[in-house]
Amino acid sequence: MTDENDGPVTGHSPNALAAVEAEIARACKDARRDRASVTLIAVSKTFDADAIIPVIDAGQRVFGENRVQEAKGKWPALTSVYPDIVLHLIGPLQSNKAKEAVALFDAIHSVDRPSICQALAKEIESQNKHPELFVQINTGEEPQKAGIAPGEADAFIASCRDTYGLTISGLMCIPPVDEPPAAHFALTAKIAARNGLTKLSMGMSADFANAIMLGATHVRVGSAIFGHR
Ligand SMILES: *Cc1c(COP(=O)(O)O)cnc(C)c1O
User: Fold this and answer.
1) pTM score
2) InterPro entries attached here (predicted)?
3) Looking at ligand 1, which atom is closest to the CA of residue 110?
4) For the segment 86-100, what is each residue's pLDDT rounded down to a tens digit?
């Protein structure tokens, strides 16, 4: 991959993307995994189209945003030019944003309570659109963080299916910032395995290689691609 942008403003991201790609490839090789088993989600939150377009032009098609409103403001114009863009919502979701979220996103990583399940089920049916759904696990049981407690995960995943008729693809976690992430990745993988879920959204700029070693199928990488926020 070559960097075709010489200017200081847009020159950073394509090189950084190539470096992230190389690290993913290396982690996959170390883990004896197929590169195709890991999806790189380029987290573009806070960055505008001028920063995003060079990354699209470098070949990246899967992007993540953490706010419905922000995504709604910048992505429709981009997806009309690049229709093969895939958008993931990785941030917390409010029930009153479920309609917009289902309309805009191809995947939602933050399913974590009955009110969200109910709102998503309603919108999935009325829009006949089926974003891939991940249940967020609060592996560190941090009070300020979204996600379902590990001890309640099995029952919640069952109720997503049985009560709300949702198809859950996998689990997502955000480990506590002040702890080594490996135990949190391993716990998330274990909960997924015993619930028959095959997708694991885990790993960010600082730890995505580690997450790949522990089974991540989706890594969410922001600052390593776009720079400091
Ligand atoms: C911002 C964000 C990321 C990306 O974080 P970086 O450290 O910039 O890679 C990943 N996941 C979630 C849920 C985020 O909000």
Assistant:
1) 0.94
2) Ala_racemase_N, PLP-binding_barrel, PyrdxlP_homeostasis
3) 13
4) 999 999 999 999 999
